[in-house]
Specification:
Blueprint (H helix, E strand, L loop, with lengths): L5 E6 L2 H4 L3 E4 L6 E4 L4 E4 L13 E9 L6 E8 L5 E5 L5 E9 L2 E9 L5 E4 L4 E2 L3 E2 L4 E9 L6 E12 L5
Parallel strand pairs: 1-9, 1-14
Antiparallel strand pairs: 2-10, 3-4, 5-13, 6-14, 7-10, 7-13, 8-9, 8-11, 8-12
Length: 169
Amino acid sequence: MPADNTIFTEPLTAEAFAPFGQVIQTENADHYPINLGMTERFHDLARIELEGQGARPLISIFRGRPYALPLDLLMMERHPLGSQAFVPLSAHPWLVIVAQDNRGEPTRLRAFRPAAGQGVNIAINVWHGVLTPLEKTSEFLVVDRGGEGDNLEEHHFKHPWTIVADRPE
């Protein structure tokens, strides 16, 4: 396998992830007290996008079995009619794998390693890997699109990409 098909994981930051969507986190978020001051509301953390006939938001829980690194990435998917948000319901490690688009195919892949408490909202039509928990079975609150139309496109690689841990110093 060519060396250029290797992807090193990197920490998830709002700046690095911006071309692909938003990081859902409380750090640096707008917030204010509610419920007689007993609750802090971290407000408007992601841009939920819904397109097409009968579009409506869905809230689901996904339970993913763990992957191990190195990981052979065989395919990616994207959703042309809606964004997709993932918020972990545990502190278990996981990966977010995303890519830019080049004429309908994923390119310039990146693998982000969220910190505990970080979620993501993957923007409409952005290529991404499947749900990728590490170490333990993990549950995620997922907000995405329901309604008419085909909201799933898959791309299967001719040669797998290999996701490995952080680049050695």
